# Entry
Amino acid sequence: MTHLILATDKVSAEGLKLLHSDDRFEVVHVDDSSSQEFRDALARAEALVVRSATEVDSGLLSAAGLLKAVGRAGVGIDNVDVVTASEMNVAVYNAPGGNTVAAAELTMALMLSLVRKVPSAERSLRDGRWDRAAFKGTELRRKKLGLIGAGRIGGEVAKRCHAFEMQTLVYDPYLTNERAEELGVKLVGLTEVIEKADIISIHVPLTDETRGLIDAEALESMKPSTVVINASRGGVVDEHALAEALRTGVIAGAALDVYEQEPLPADSPLRDCPNLVLTPHLGGSTAEAQVEVAREVAAHIFDLLIERDSSGAVNAPSLR
Ligand code: NAD
# Structure
C-alpha cells in the first residue's frame, strides 16, 4: 500500500523529490485547497504539506481521517492548529532552517538599499530626473551593526556584515558566549545596541518579550543617523512610533519586510512615510528556499511514515 501525500499552496515538487522518487509514496499536488479535488485527496491523505495560504484548522483536520502528518514548508506554523492536531495524534512539522540564507540575504539587500538610497534614486530617475546630489549615501565599512537576536538568520547576517568590515554588537539574552565568539560579535545589553549602533537589524521571534521592543522610547534613544531593519516578525517594531520617528527625523531611515497586519493595509501610514524601504514579506522568497523548506519537511514525513520516527515534530511530546 502506498502512502498518499497531498501537497498544496504550490509547494515545490523538486523539494519533495525524496517522496516523489520512492514508489512507497504517491504525491498529489492540488494547489487550490478550496477545491473539491483537494477535499477528495485530503480524505485519503496520510500527510499534508502546505505553505502559508491554507488554514489547517480543526475543520480541515476533521475532514482528513487518515492524516498522520502536517508539514508546513516554511518557518511559522501560525496557520496550523497544533492543539487540535496533537489531540488527533497528527505530527506537525515546520522547516525553520530552509529559508535562513534567503532571509539573511534580503536583510543585506535592505541594508544596502537604505544606506545607498537605491529605491528613491531609482524612482527619481524613472520620474525623469538626474539628481546625483540628493542621493549621496554612506558606507557600511567601519559602521556598527546592532543585531537584536543572533540565531540562525541573525548569525548569517553577522557573517555577511563581517565581510563588509563592520563591527557587530549583539543583544540576545539566550546566546552563549561560545556562539558569540564563533560569530566574531560582541554581546551587549539592549540599551548599548540602541544607543550605539549605526544600523539595527532585528531577528527575533514575536513573543510577549519582543512585542513592541522597538517603541517610541527606543527610537528616541537612537542616534539621528541610525537606520532600523525589521525582516523578522511584524509587531516587534511599533509601526506608529516608527512612522512618527521617520517623519520627524528622529532616525535616518528604516526598512520593513514584515508588518503588524499582512497584507499591509492600503491606507497604512507607512506607505507614504519618508526614508522607508518596504517589501511585502519577501524574506523567504527565493527559488532555493522554496525547494529547501519542502525538502526539510519531506525528510520528516519520510521518517514518520517509513521509520516511525516523529522526533522532529513541533508537537512530538504530545504524540502517542
Ligand atoms: P532563531 O530561533 O534561530 O533565532 C532567534 C534568536 O532570537 C535566538 O537566538 C533567540 O535567542 C533570540 N531571542 C529570543 N528572544 C529574544 C529577546 N527577547 N531579545 C533578543 N533576542 C531574543 O530564528 P531565525 O530562524 O533566526 O528567525 C528569526 C526571525 O525571522 C523569526 O521571527 C522568523 O519568524 C523570522 N523570519 C522571517 C522571514 C521573512 O520572510 N521575513 C523568513 C524567515 C524567518
User: Anything to note?
Assistant: The first strand starts at residue 3 and ends at 7. Residues 75-76, 96, 99-100, 103, 148-154, 171-175, 203-205, 207, 209-210, 231-233, 257-258, 281, 283-284 surround nicotinamide-adenine-dinucleotide (CB under 6 Å).
